[in-house]
């Protein structure tokens, strides 16, 4: 099939304008209907998903990949519940802010409006289809979806249900469009549609982000890649620090906000590092350590430890590996983070409030932590209700992007036939 | 000379980090020093500018171009005054916002931080060099400048003075770097530096914006192009509307917020249009009108009027030309604006508050006006103190971009050794 992306873009722009003009209740209603329909149509969705899983198995995809691909009744229920939750979040489009009256009497305010049309490019998780649609519709944005080729039958079934829900809610079905051809050329074509698409959100690995940044004429949200650090400063409560480090590393090692490198101040390294490797080693972690840590730890039995290579400190592990480096002081820790962090989530463990403030001031990451696990960087955990991505770029939005981050504003200027002199 | 843009980027990143960490007073001081130095070094700046102007004259550039290029003592005084004003604006980096305590006791807030490194690509106005440097330094951003080849000697002199001011203020001179080679390949190279540059701000015509959007790996602010509309609804106070239309069209016709197309409701067109063309015609305006307006106006003497071609309603005039179209009602006006506006500044003139609200709700431009001239879309007029650009894109910032729009935020999360469950 030869898809006409220009036409899709045009339709999306039109549908987005329509969506932006309807009442809050209608958008909420669409999500509630979809939430129900996911369960009513469970059979056909799971059947489509079954075909995808079978093909993936035939292609020899890893168990981890199969797990990401898989839908089952309880996962569908979870998707349905999430939609209902998003439906009942406050409407971001009702916000009016920065009201003021200028000296000449002009009345100014900003009014929150949808971004317009989102282009979302993702890989093998079919739940992303529903997550993204929920956030987009709630925030008044049309969306063009481009899922992975592995999920084509799951997405086909989901999109059918989504279109039914939109129609029942009285919204144009082109609010949600799907590029159902896995040919990669359509990703490129989507990235050229700057006339109709306002923001590209890639959800996937580094190479997808790189491809989008290189080829897009549309702003791209960069994110999802976290080389995360915790620095244990000498005043830290070491006993309380251990569970934080453990949590940051092992609670869910495959995600972007998991810990990658532990920095420990020299003065406490001799007593603290053995405790770290014992606790985390028991949890299955292996360690890539610098020379000083090596000297401290090399004689310990039963831990998986090796000397860190230079590139190890620039690696997002996404697994039970932890880099360890000993630093002399806060300054050296900040410098290491500046050199190696991806600006996602970095923290300090300390009892010294002045040093904590210095760390917060100088470390320029989307989320900077004092005495907490990096695992909290998440739209749900931060109280945003949900997230469409975690941005590590600097413009528009940083960190978890929820409903508000899918909006922009317009300036409204009200006068009494004012002229500029 | 062969410039090493990678090295410039690296230096800019380093200098930007330094700049972001100094006290507010030091950034303010740098601007005050520069403000003085511009006057102290007037002679060498004007001499450099004289060389540029002479070369431009030899090349046969238009008087309008020469005027944009020209510096003189009073313009230098203006630049110096503007810098002093920006120096004393509130520091955007002192803002802390969205503070909250989560149910688990984690304390969250957002802290405003600089974007980092700006890449600014502009054309023939040497005052942009100083404007941009003032806003960048005040907001804690390093900047790489790429001015037009016409202004090379003016910029050489200005950059020398800027570097002296930075050094006297104790700031690294690499906070401001200048690509002093007019070879266009360096624009392209700058657009590839996504490792070191956080935002590209083009200031120039449509082709420069197009080139940046097409080639940049870095987010680009699109803006500066305004096809602006005023719709005169039948309830408007026509006598008061005339000076607003006049102001929007003729007060400064060469800028992006000047009026391009006037939409007039059918029911008042017969009585109102003759008054419009008489008043604006006396001010030197000529008109491109649709068929209905033509029928109304064709027999009037002494006005320059012609039938509009379809592309005329997609033209930013930047001169004393006005498109006129007669529409049946608000709906048709909104539809015309949706089709032809660049999303810069559009307004309605009306006494009907319900229709005004409908217009504000449905017209999705950076600035939407009720009963005021479109000429107010400007950082100074909106009370932002100054502006680096007027954005017509939808992400990050819309409309006039002042100091705050050159910043982002970090999330700061403070816990008591919190772990995620």
Give structural notes.
- The structure is a homodimer of 421-residue chains.
- Chain A is α/β, with parallel strands linked by helices.
- Chain A has two domains: 5-222 and 396-414, Aldehyde Dehydrogenase, Chain A, domain 1, CATH 3.40.605; 228-381, Aldehyde Dehydrogenase, Chain A, domain 2 (3-Layer(aba) Sandwich), CATH 3.40.309.
- Helix content of chain A is 42%, strand content 21%.
- Chain A is built from 14 helices and 16 strands.
- A seven-stranded parallel β-sheet of chain A has the order 10-9-11-8-7-12-13, with helices on both faces. Chain A has a four-stranded parallel β-sheet with strand order 5-4-3-6, sandwiched between helices.
- The model of chain A has no long low-confidence stretch (mean pLDDT 95).
- At the A-B interface, helix 1, strand 2, helix 10, helix 14 and strand 13 of A face helix 1, strand 2, helix 10, helix 14 and strand 13 of B.
